[in-house]
Design goal:
Layout: H1 3-6, H2 8-11, E1 16-20, E2 24-28, E3 38-42, H3 54-75, E4 79-83, E5 93-99, H4 127-139
Antiparallel strand pairs: 1-2, 2-3, 3-5, 4-5
Helix pairs in contact: 3-4
Length: 141
Amino acid sequence: MNALHDCLLCREDGGELLWQDAGHRIVWAGQPEQPGLCRVIAQRHVKEMSDLDPAQRQRTMAVVFALEEALRELLAPDKINLASLGNVVPHLHWHVIPRFAGDAHFPNAIWGERLRDAPPPPLPPDFPQRMRHALQGHLAG
């Protein structure tokens, strides 16, 4: 099976689509314990940032930073975590994770040890729509 047909992020959006252009898409992952977690996903199959040319690398980070800014405006988290792992799904994607001091894992990574019983941070009921609007503002032009 070739990489494109075997790759989850080539076959599926990877979450609820919030924004896209020719090179990237931003999706809301909808993780139960980290409800604001979003991803920036490359539209074509590449594994590493170094697979991109310098202009594509710069654009990728501009999209990551725009998503970070939109999440900060909308949710006012205590911290934003950025992670590009790809060990399980080797398709270039960045996790952009709003963190709150009272979340179950803080200050550990969300994949780390759970430190407390805590409900997930609430999201505005119209979170996807508000994110789409904020992203359009940050990524226009």
